[in-house]
Amino acid sequence: MASIRYRRGGFAGVFVAVLCASALLTALGVLFESGLRAGVEPQRYAGATVVVAARQALPVAGDLDVPLAERVPLPADAVARVAAVPGVDRAVGEVSAPVVLPGEPAARAYGWGSAALAPLEVREGVAPARPRDAVLDAALADRLGVRVGDRLPVALGGEPREYTVTGVAAGPGDTGRQAALYVTDEEARALSGRPDQVDVIGVLAGGGVDGLAARIGAALPDLDVEVHTGDRRADAEFLDVGRVRAELVVLSLSFAGTTLMISVLVVAGTLGLSVQQRRRELALLRAIVATPRQVHRLVGAEVLLVAGTAAVLGALPGIGVAHLMRDAFASAGMLPPDFGLVTGPVPPVAAVLLVLVTARVAAWVAVRRAASAPPVEALRDAAVEPPRLGAVRAVSGWVFAALGAGAALVPLFLPGEQALAGAGASVICLVVAAGLLGPRLVTGATRLVAGPLRRLSPVGGHLAVEGVLSNARRLAAVVTPMVLAVAMASVQLFTQTTVRAAAEEQASGGVVADVVVTGPAGLAPGVTEAIRRVPGVEAVTPVVRGQAFVRHLALGEEQVSAYAVQGLVADGLDRTLDLRTTAGDLARLTGDAVALSEQAAGALGLGVGDRVDLVLGDGAAARPEVVAIYGRGLGFGDVALPRDVLAAHTPTGFDHSVLVRTDGSGALAAAVAERFPGVVVQDRAALDAAGQEQRDTQSWISLIALLVVLGYLAISVVNTLVMATAERSREFALLRLVGTRRRQVVRMTRVEALLVVGIAIVVGTAAALPALVGVSIGLTGSPVPSAPPLLYLAITGTVAVLGLAAIGVPTRVALRARPVDAIGARD
């Protein structure tokens, strides 16, 4: 306790580092727990006792299940089997289809029978009885400004229809998350295009839920179903809830691992700096016969007290950080706006324990040399900083450097997901190496620029060079968090820019059609056929988008990889789309066939003639033969299937877009606009790269999480710099007493700051470069990553401003005291 009171400044830095680490780990823990247990309340199924749905995930042995992209349907005859279960009053099979309503971003048409699951009742008018009758919920009717008897224009896959509003319905709960149009059950089945299937089965019953759920599950032994009760009914209602929970778990685990490694480096560096500033005190304790064990116990008790207090106090703001991240993720489109968080006791307790263990181990490592050295050697080291690194530290540094360089080569041998994993491991290993070898890096860089600095500023430059050379260990602890900030930001941001630039280039070069036709909710086959009949149209290629999963072995373990899929028609494909075929023939893309990108084929170890085990977006399994390998996978998806094969496993079977080759007459746009309102004819540059919207969302999500981590790093940078500079008040006083002017001292610290910032930027860039080159080669084949200069300047400029400010402000504060008073301050 006396030591903590005596050295409040040094322990304040440790306190800040641990508090921020605890807050960030708590926030990520809350997100992880929410990914396992949180969700939203059911709306359209609020009145259902039980909701039966097909399993919407692909099981993976020893890992989290992978959520499927499309809704897995159930056979229509399962409704009768559920209705026959004892205790079931009524079973309702729900079917739906996406439609376009005026001014509504997304809407679906449902059968009126499923309105009982909400429950909805007609408050005005009557229920739908004829094929073109419709009932709207009250909120939707108000937004559209329609009343009973009005005619409502509706588009299905671009094809226009018109319904008569026969009623307005309302219920006890909120049904406004998605606009709903209710038609007759027969019309809903016709619109869905799947009359023999249902989306879910809603059960109305008055008995106990638990026993009923078990009986329903037992009645469907041949189907892989999930029986949802309580708030889990929303998982069947909103497929995005199940997907985002899985994404939230993966994201929080990924960034929690990165954050834990960063916090280890930051807390260890801060503690090392704190212990280094106490060299004379610890050496004196050894000189008066304090045993190494007693020194370890002293520092360990101090750290546990300070770090324990900071960790506990950091947990509460961590919950607030989790809610801020949730709001940011919702704004980016990852989470539904009504997705709640679970704030249990486990995340803060786990964060506190992790940070305490990290701090205690770091304290043991930091004080090891001072505690184990003989008393005479400890006193000598306290007076003059040891010029050489220890053998263990030097060897460890070179080992981590070799591991980092090796990890950067992973994309050359394991393309795809392994490329990104290798990049992350590479930058962490190289930053650890920079931290261990930091004194040598600082000394070597300073000697390299010593001559120009002395000529540029004879007094300030000379003092700065000599000060850095004599305090390389102290400055190495300051450089490490800045290196980490530059390297982390560069790898994360420039990986995304590299992938995006390559995808856009491939998409732009691959579309050889003249125009692209798109619709807000897809294009029905009738629209595509009408385009074929327009005069001047020479070739038409409908494109269906989807997702597929492939089970394969990676490093000896089973892994499931998700790939963007496009469904294409081989006839006339060469006149509208150039995928840059490198093996096989895309003309064979019919029936039981598939084409793979070079990245997917390399990751899966497949070639032309092999068969690939696919799981399509709705859970259906397929084993097509590889008939072609192509090079433009980032732009158009890594898997290409025949259009009819993929369309049969999408919710609507509609085309995502239609590529059209024309004679240049311009008749297509006028013909489409006249017959299909809402359908858009654009030039080929308007076609987005496959999955680009999803990549943009993922980029924003990664950027949000990265900004939180970088915020922690920024605080750490400022914290360590302020600690290092504030402890130099006696050094500044001595310089002024021997005749150095105040202005020269300020200039000296400015030169030191520039030197430290420059070293951090160069080393951080060097640490990021191998990873970025490896990722670029693995994903694009080019060793040159896409790194926008302005973005790089923003990264390095931010680090430079933080570094200069964190050194300049404490220097000016320290120089306010009179030299005679400062030289006599306690040490």
UniProtKB/TrEMBL annotation:
Q: How does it sit in the membrane?
A: Multi-pass membrane protein
Q: What is this protein called?
A: ABC transporter permease
Sorted alphabetically, the keyword list is: Cell membrane, Membrane, Transmembrane, Transmembrane helix
Cross-referenced Pfam families, in alphabetical order? FtsX
**Which InterPro entries did the record assign?**
ABC3_permease_C, Membrane_comp_ABC_pdt
Q: Which domain of life is it from?
A: Bacteria
What lineage does the source organism belong to?
Bacteria, Bacillati, Actinomycetota, Actinomycetes, Pseudonocardiales
Which chain regions cross the lipid bilayer? 248-273, 303-325, 345-367, 395-414, 420-438, 475-494, 700-722, 751-778, 790-809
> What sequence ranges are listed for the domain ABC3 transporter permease C-terminal?
254-375, 704-817
* Cell location: Cell membrane
Identify the species of origin. Saccharothrix yanglingensis
Q: Give the main location.
A: membrane
